[in-house]
Write a structure and sequence with these properties.
single chain, TIM Barrel, 8-stranded parallel sheet, glycolysis, 11 helices, Aldolase_TIM, alpha/beta, Triosephosphate_isomerase, EC 5.3.1.1
Length: 251
């Protein structure tokens, strides 16, 4: 099955509103020149409204970097799904390794966020990934299976049509280390096999699985040639027009 590539940039805690708008406008032009793939950016919360307005007439997709499970209430510091859809946003990153590792978000909490997104017309990008210690102790597949099964608990096959998975080896995020194309493909194939077991082959075949972990202009082409890699979730290289444009326009 042909899966449409998705190139996503997670800007994390970077850029002022003006800087974010300038970058978004430039990337919207790049996306226009590469129409056979989806291009998504995830600005910081402070810039979401301005960026959405700036790229409203483009094909560029805009995502939030996180989303709460409740639509309103006493949840200081959280952003509700309806606050996002009110801006015209249709995507949200959930379970990023930094949320898990730095802020202690559990798989149970991430699952609640997934359902909060699904219940309010948002497409979740569920992030999963193992630490260096887990990889070195040969626990990669065990960790990923637990994160996927717990993260997708009570998610139906029909709902899976709106979900993207992103495999991000924690040991390769911001370290300059990158999984080889063979390592990345092996894990992506495992994930697709697991989805087949959890749902059915049609669901697994249609689910886009992204790779994230020090993705750069010089490794994007090799990564995107792998059978089960359907796109990338980019961090630092997504903050510069030149580098991210090269990634968007992979060969």
């Amino acid at each position: 099955m042909s899966r449409r590539p998705l190139i996503a940039g997670n800007w994390k805690m970077h850029l002022t509103v003006a800087e974010a708008v300038q970058l978004a406008k430039a990337l919207a032009e790049t996306a226009r020149n590469c129409p056979d793939r989806d291009v998504l950016i995830a600005p910081p919360f402070t810039a979401l409204a301005a960026v959405c307005t700036a790229v409203a007439k483009s094909t560029l997709l805009v995502a939030a970097q996180n989303v709460a499970w409740e639509v309103q209430g006493a949840f200081t510091g959280e952003i509700s799904p309806t606050m996002l859809t009110d801006l015209g946003i249709a995507w949200a990153i959930v379970g990023h390794s930094e949320r898990r590792q730095i802020f202690g978000e559990s798989s149970a909490m991430i699952n609640r966020r997934i359902h909060g997104a699904l219940g309010n017309a948002l497409h979740p990008i569920l992030c999963i990934g193992e630490t260096l210690a887990e990889r070195e102790s040969e626990q990669t597949f065990t960790v990923l299976q637990q994160q996927i099964q717990e993260g997708l608990d009570q998610v139906t096959a029909e709902q899976m049509r709106t979900i993207v998975l992103a495999y991000e080896p924690v040991w390769a995020i911001g370290t300059g280390k990158t999984a080889t194309k063979e390592q990345a493909q092996e894990v992506h194939a495992f994930i697709r096999g697991l989805l087949t077991a959890m749902y059915e082959k049609a669901v697994a075949d249609s689910t886009r699985i992204l790779y994230g972990g020090s993705v750069k202009p010089d490794n994007i082409d090799d990564l995107m040639q792998q059978a089960d890699i359907d796109g990338v979730l980019v961090g630092g290289a997504a903050l510069q027009v030149e580098s991210f444009s090269r990634i968007i326009c992979f060969q």
